[in-house]
Design brief:
- This protein is mainly α.
- Helix content is 74%, strand content 3%.
Length: 323
């Protein structure tokens, strides 16, 4: 079919997470709690890092950026998923679908590059402790964060540039609950075999190699820590294992989705909901539950912002005396 001789579909229809109304309501309440928790937990990290001067270090500066990304990334899909769970018709306009894919890959790419920057930060902190503050200055951290966002933007532009010229004349039913390259590419009215191979190499192969590189990097860091002793060693190991856990949670679903032929499998929906909604809420939990410094900073901030126990007792005493 000639690319200029077709009528483009005006919208796409999602299959959704479930056709059962009871299960849809259950999923709605569960995913609503998860999404609200994601936003509030990551905002708590952002506020704590901003307000607590003890956390004005490169590692927490980068962690704050990751929290911003987690909120934005989950907001690309979660609100639409929640609306569709309560709707009979689950549709999205063609332009809306392309926009969702653009921001999905922009933020997902920036997320992966940011995790790489955090690995570099830990390597510098452990291998060159005397020069760490100079190497990871505020200006350099800002430049690395900007580079991560630019990398995500370039990655996303490549994806959209490859998809937009394709003819989408029908069918228009997306086998999923959000727009992404594997599902949308299958709807093109032309042979997409070569393009699929290009997408797999661009997304899947690069993601797999990047993941292996990060795992090797953290392994080297953990081996370097064998020569350290005391409390500093324990804190460094705890931080690195938390980082490695988050890296694994991010990369494994990506590899599953993008490093194989774009054919539907029974596990696709479970992996996709984990990838888009569940993982962003796990990041703040991993970083706070395993980080005593962050937990202490949150408690100090809570005491600063909220009334103390003495003040509450004094108010209660005044109310009792008035009664």
């Amino acid at each position: 079919m000639a690319l200029g001789n077709y009528t483009r579909v005006p919208e796409f229809i999602f299959c959704g997470l479930s056709q059962s109304q009871e299960l849809s309501l259950l999923l709605f309440f569960f995913l609503s709690v998860v999404y609200v928790t994601t936003v509030l937990a990551n905002i708590a990290i952002m506020v704590t890092v901003t307000c607590e001067t003890r956390l004005h270090t490169p590692m927490y500066f980068l962690l704050r950026n990751l929290s911003v990304l987690d909120i934005c990334f989950s907001s690309i899909t979660a609100p639409k998923i929640l609306v569709d769970l309560l709707s009979r018709t689950k549709t999205i306009s063609f332009n809306g679908c392309i926009t969702q894919m653009f921001f999905f890959h922009l933020l997902g790419g920036a997320d992966i590059f940011s995790l790489s920057v955090m690995a570099f930060d830990r390597y510098m902190a452990i291998s060159k402790p005397l020069h760490y503050v100079t190497i990871m200055s505020r200006g350099r951290c800002t430049a690395l964060i900007v580079a991560s966002w630019v990398g995500g933007f370039v990655h996303s532009i490549v994806q959209i540039s490859l998809l937009l010229p394709l003819p989408f004349c029908g069918p228009n039913v997306v086998d999923g609950f959000y727009c992404d390259v594997p599902q949308v590419l299958k709807l093109a009215c032309t042979d997409t075999f070569v393009l699929e191979l290009l997408m797999i190499s661009n997304n899947g192969l690069v993601t797999t190699l990047w993941f292996v590189l990060l795992v090797v990097s953290y392994t080297v860091i953990l081996l370097m820590l064998r020569s350290h002793t005391g409390e500093g060693r324990r804190k460094a190991i705890s931080t690195c294992t938390a980082h490695l856990t988050v890296v694994t949670l991010h990369f494994v679903p990506c590899i599953y989705v993008y490093a194989r032929p774009f054919t539907a499998l029974p596990m696709d929906r479970a992996v996709s909901i984990t990838f888009t909604v569940i993982i962003p809420v796990l990041n703040p939990m991993i970083y706070t539950l395993r980080n005593q410094e962050m937990k202490s900073a949150m408690r100090r901030l809570k005491r600063k912002l909220g009334p103390s126990k003495k003040e509450i007792d004094a108010v209660k005493s005044r109310l009792e005396s008035q009664n």
